[in-house]
Amino acid sequence: MTDLTALTLAEALDGLKSKQFSSVELTEAFNAAIAKARVLNAFVVETPEKALEMAKASDARRAKGKAGKLDGAPLGIKDLYCTKGVRTTACSGILGEFTPTYESTVTQNLWDEGAVMLGKLNMDEFAMGSSNETSHFGNVINPWRRKGDNQGLTPGGSSGGSASSVAANLCLAATASDTGGSIRQPAAFTGTVGIKPTYGRASRYGMVAFASSLDQAGPIAKTVEDSAILLEVMCSHDPKDSTSLNIKTPNWQKDVRKGVKGMRIGIPKEYRIDGLSDEIDALWQQGIKWLKEAGATIVDISLPHTKYALPAYYIVAPAEASSNLARYDGMRYGARVEGGNLTQTYEGTRASGFGKEVQRRLMIGTYVLSSGYYDAYYLRAQKVRTKIFQDFVDAFESCDAILTPACPSPAFAFGEKSGDPVEMYLNDVFTVTANLAGLPGIAVPAGLSASGLPLGLQVIGKALDEAACFRVGGALEDAAGFVAKPDRWW
Amino acid sequence: MTERPTFRIKGDTGDWEVVMGLEIHAQVASNAKLFSGASTAFGSDPNCNVSLVDAAMPGMLPVINRVCVEQAIRTGLGLKAQINNYSRFDRKNYFYPDLPQGYQISQFAHPIVGEGEIDVDVEVPGKEGYAFTCRIERLHLEQDAGKSIHDMDPHATYVDLNRSGVALMEIVSKPDVRSPAEAAAYVKKLRAIVIALGTCDGDMEKGNLRADVNVSVCKPGQYEKFRETGDFKHLGTRCELKNMNSYRFIQQAIEYEARRQIEIIEGGGKVDQETRLFDPVKGETRSMRSKEDAHDYRYFPDPDLLPLELEQAWIEGIRKSLPELPDQKRARFEKDYGLSRYDAGVLTSDADKALFFEEVAKGRDAKLAANWVTQELFGYLNKEGLELSQSPVSASALGGLIALISDNTISGKIAKDVFARMIEGEGEAAVIVEKHGLKQVTDTGAIEKVVDEIIAANPEQVAKVKDKPQTLGWFVGQVMKASGGKANPQAVNDILKAKLGI
């Protein structure tokens, strides 16, 4: 029998449908793979029994001819999603052993279509990080290594567990979330596909909040098609989320192989940032060439406020976070450090419960909202945000999708950037704009670096035009023929 | 109506005036909370009306309750206020155990209701009252916090989240209130309006309607300068008296606070801007927190909620469904019952009073009914410190008494005795009159007989009354006395005049 864990989601669903294997067989294969890959630290909670139970139920449904869209497919769930009866901490110490009594809408959508949960995936604490080094449960290891080098690399972040587990065949696909690039950057670092849909496509109900106006759910998967299959199920209108869009979710799977003939692809000159490496630039040029060859027209565009995006992001996101994370006060759930009085209990709980990076952002956020600084920071950042949104509106007058690099570099080693927060924040330089403008963005693996690490390209679409992301993403995938997998060393 | 008097307090350096603006927190009458489906029922066991949203569990999101928005609009329309088609929710951030989210969702920069006004009727004991117009600055929606209970355990504080997330309307007045009595009258009137609208039950004992009063003092003439220029520098530094839920305490607290401030200023000191609490036992206010310890609330728009955009058609639909408001009721009472503005104002200042009066007056002499309700009944209740709901005499019973006066069964004087017996619990007026033989004598024959006897027995008085007709009263008194007060006074007068030839 072939290695079931190497299948794509689409292949696995076909196999289940044609009864080549059962969900139980598939799930057992993944349970075993997870058990053998603990060194990657991708899972923070493994739920093998629950997975088998769900798989059995799925097989029973399929036998009755009542299979859902994802029936029997074993998935990994980022620890940001509240899962009923399964510990959910967003990889923060402050949530202790918090076990929700409720299910997030996105994961409920998956279970409603028959998916199987393998466990909860590691991530940067509260999704604040670009290397998965801020998790309370320790670093996630990237299954990829530099050629001839055994040094451990980060999988990117914050969805590092999602990216590593998909790249290492520990699940068919995984849920992730993206506030400033947390789906797309780790996908690019691990040779996987990640898409963040338009803000409001997926419900935020039951997702531990980082920055409400930027957070958006999305999948990390092995192929563009897999990401389309999963995203379709994840998205829905949810009356429990006031920012959820009341619109129908299209069938995106059919867009993936439509090709780009006649599409106009915008190339923003402002993304050619200072110090952009030759390798990344070459990859970008390669992507342009592929799309041209596939019949697209290349258009030079300008997104003039791009250089203000990162600073604006690092004001808006911490500001919202400083308020969203106020509820973690040790009073009702999670970890509490008792002090002599109320203030001491608050201080003790939050000082010991939150990691350094989270504390840094809470302080930045508190500062920028303070009286006397609000106008200079928060309000100005919101104005920048409006400008960035308008930049995109203007640019999309002359193009249908925008092609950029996904990240300024391939995966880096542990400790390489964690000493300098600003250098770490620069990882998000190509991805934050889509969050600030609420636009869909997909990262697709397009080649290997000189050191043998995956590199990704990003496609940004118009609001609600995920279809364009999938078409261009599919074309890049076809042209790149990216089939490399990390050598199995774990 | 009389002129609005100026309330002044004598200090060592001369007269002082008070200036007040009020913030009323009125709990929205709704079954569910502002942003969750949890019940708002009062008196449930602690922490039983708490949803995941109210407890601020991870990943929970607020969803606006349409009914609460509608109630805010209705209240705004009742205050003749501007309804803002665009409003927005902001987060007010601070830490406290009864605030699970770590922020209160409120409306800071863009409230749902803008400027309006209320006509306030002020009662003056023993005199005719007066009216003034108080301008409303704004009304906004916000979440209530939970309740911290400090006295259950000496070493611990307990938290009840049943109130957490309940919708409140904060109604902010302009600094147009000028005396303790006006402050109480303002709250009374606002309460009457929200009760009439059905947007708040007005239950002050349960804290469903409570007032914060901003008090400052100034020298005569300064307030007028402020009104001319809008510049607050003409007014004194204000202190905020928090969370008052009784008309009596509001007045006592303001009185105390104004004198405290005057004493500070006259002693060469400066009033600190601070929040103060009134201690009804000691009858004084004490500092709760000063401006220095004031929180930096870090207001910013709540990113979990979209701006509230209201369709004009919806607002107009609500406007059409408004019930009769106290001012409209007052106008109707003046017109339909022929009452004075003052009487009508007193009777409509409170929905219960108006309802009581209408029941008394139904099919009866309305002016007489108004007199009996406002003077005899309210006079009695005030003296005894009772609420209308505690009245020993029901509306229909009082109506029965008035019917007996109107059909000349008893005189007004006898009616007062009957009323006293009704209060004592002797039963219906008709029963009392029957039992004690208090029926008015309208039999002219019987009255004539008594008159004849008195004329015969008092020739000197008869001679005197020819010159001085005003001494007729002496004869009336004698006849009434002889009849045990039961003779019809009009009949007595008529017969006396005829017999005495005056």
Q: What is the CATH class designation of the domain at 4-260 and 473-480 in chain A?
A: Alpha Beta
**What would you give as the CATH superfamily of the domain at 4-260 and 473-480 in chain A?**
Amidase signature (AS) domain
- The tally of beta strands of chain A, per DSSP, is 11
SSE pattern of chain A: HHEHEHEHEHEEHEHEHHHHEHHEEH
Percent strand of chain B equals 15-25%
Biggest sheet layout of chain A: 11 strands, mixed
SSE-based structural type of chain B: alpha+beta
How would the global form of chain B be characterised?
elongated
* Classification by helices and strands of chain A: alpha/beta
Q: How many beta-strand segments of chain B?
A: 16
Uncertain residue segments of chain A: none
Percent range for helical residues of chain B?
25-40%
Helix run count of chain B: 16
Report what the structure shows.
The complex is a heterodimer of chains A (490) and B (502). Chain A has 15 helices and eleven strands. Chain A has 490 residues and is of the alpha/beta class. Chain A has a domain at 4-260 and 473-480: Amidase signature (AS) enzymes (Alpha-Beta Complex). An eleven-stranded mixed sheet of chain A has the order 1-3-2-4-6-5-10-11-9-7-8, sandwiched between helices. In chain A, strand 10 (441-448) and strand 11 (454-461) form a beta hairpin. The two termini of chain A are 22 Å apart. Chain B is an alpha+beta fold. Chain B folds into three domains: 10-293, no CATH class; 324-436, no CATH class; 444-500, Arc Repressor Mutant, subunit A, CATH 1.10.10.410. Chain B is 39% helix and 21% strand. Chain B is built from 16 helices and 16 strands. In chain B, strands 1, 2, 6, 7, 10, 11, 12, 13 and 14 form a nine-stranded mixed sheet that branches. Chain B is elongated and about 95 Å long. The interface between A and B is large, with 43 and 29 residues.
